[in-house]
Write a structure and sequence with these properties.
Structural class: alpha/beta
Keywords: Hydrolase
Radius of gyration: 18 Å
Strand content: 5-15%
GO molecular function, one term: hydrolase activity
Strand order of the largest sheet: 3-2-1-4-5-8
InterPro entries: Isochorismatase-like_dom, Isochorismatase-like_hydrls, Isochorismatase-like_sf, TAT_signal
Mean pLDDT: 88
CATH class: Alpha Beta
Shape: globular
Helix content: 40-55%
Organism: Microvirga aerophila
Number of helices: 11
Protein name: Isochorismatase
Length: about 270
Amino acid sequence: MHNDDCCKPHRRSFLAAMAGITATGLTATGSGAAAQTAAPNFYADPANPALPKGSMKLDASRAALVVVDPQIDFMSPQGKAWPVVGESVTEHNVVPNLGRLFEAAKTAGMVVAISPHHYYPWDHNWKIQGPLEVFQHQVGIFDRTGPYTVDGFRGSGADFLPEFKKYIEDGQTIICSPHKLYGPQANDLPLQLRKQRVDQIVLAGMLANMCIESHCREFLEQGFEVAVVRDAIAAPKFPEGDGYLAALINFRYMANGLWTTDETVQMLQKT
């Protein structure tokens, strides 16, 4: 079993290191006011692209808005991952943009599904882990006491962002079983969407270069059309690189659509 008390000192030092990264700036990608100024050009599409843009045409009758990890630990200043994701969440206006997507999808009568991320005590005993898994387990992101209890869940980092609860907890939104790494292979999201005769996915949430990209790749392999909403996703900024930029490059290569929130909402209003 995961002993939270024994890990608290290590978590505190780990979080302090993460805060230090944010405070000193990310020289590879820029930070603070400089990043706010540079971001629009830094993330802009190439002036002379070699690849054609995706040709996906949204049909709300066979589409779903899939939101990955709309949880406090990723999207709130009170969240455990905020020191490394907060800048990206803020500069792309992810929270208000997701709110607009939820509202537009509900108004259009489109299927809405949530692919959450939860860790239980035994998940902390994994013997095989990648770098981001180690980070998440050390910091305690998305921790829950168990799958059959909500003790300590409400208001915790694993809970949904309060702004989204009116959409997520309306009795109509599909809340899937948790994914454990990055893609939907280990949860019931593909099954739930197939049962709704969905074959188009509008994808948003966190993290752009990990869970969003992994969901995108898996659904493309399964034959779905996938559009990513580029200003409703965000990612960490580590010295290793800007996760948002890494994802954006790959979405230009493979997504059937790479849309803004404004474009997506306009499409839904026409349905």
